[in-house]
Design brief:
Largest sheet: 8 strands, mixed
Radius of gyration: 17 Å
Helix content: 25-40%
Distance between the termini: 31 Å
Length: 212
């Protein structure tokens, strides 16, 4: 059983776990892998959106006035390039009104440290809730660097959504930022000597884009 962490939610719905099992399979080809990532993003995105602020609105139905709630502020989805792009379409299927920011963080294969190479965000980023998406949370280096960048832009509401996480990455992110929430489909066993998640699902970016 995975260790429990504060500010970490494991989405253990049967459909999520079924799709995750298919995603892990080494024989799953890129087209199916991309589809599964998109579907998982939609399912997991419901949980990632749980704490988005709401506002009261009146809606006229065909019969009467209904007192309803809508999202108070449209969220911003920030995929960490390049693998995070695989989750973007699923999130936009779920929230088509969301804006998209792009943040390029790549891992140096020798040092395993993040290296930023691109950032493009909405001008009102600081006033909006942000959901950062990336398939894997391994060492936590890229996630921490991304969170630090967004905090410097004034972001206060921030959620990190991944599909698979290592305990080392979770602990590093939680220690680095006292307010971020993490949403994941699974907490795996550990990192190997090359800083890849075990059992994991391989290099998500390569499998999404067919560059294995």
């Amino acid at each position: 059983m995975a260790k429990e962490y504060e500010r970490v939610t494991i989405v253990d719905h049967p459909l999520v776990q079924d799709k995750l099992a298919r995603l892990r399979d080494k024989d799953t080809a890129s087209p199916m892998f991309r589809m599964l990532v998109r579907e998982l993003a939609m399912l997991e995105g419901y949980e990632a959106a749980r704490y988005l602020p709401l506002k009261q609105v009146d809606v006229e139905t065909p019969l009467a006035t209904a007192h309803c709630q809508k999202l108070a502020i449209k969220p911003v989805i920030v995929p960490i390039l390049r693998a995070g792009l695989g989750l973007l379409e699923g999130m936009l299927d779920l929230m088509p009104y969301a804006s998209v920011g792009h943040l390029g963080m790549e891992r140096d294969e020798v040092t395993h440290l993040p290296r930023a190479y691109y950032a493009k965000m909405p001008s009102d980023l600081a006033q909006r809730p942000v959901i950062v998406v990336d398939p894997m949370l391994a060492t936590g280096g890229s996630a921490i660097a991304s969170i630090e960048y967004l905090r410097k832009q004034g972001v206060t509401y921030l959620t990190l959504m991944v599909m698979v996480a290592a305990p080392e990455g979770i602990e590093a992110v939680l220690a680095a930022d006292e307010n971020v929430r993490i949403i994941t489909c699974a907490i795996d066993d550990r990192l190997n000597d090359a800083a890849y998640i075990l059992p994991g699902l391989g290099d998500a970016g390569d499998r999404i884009f067919g560059t294995v």
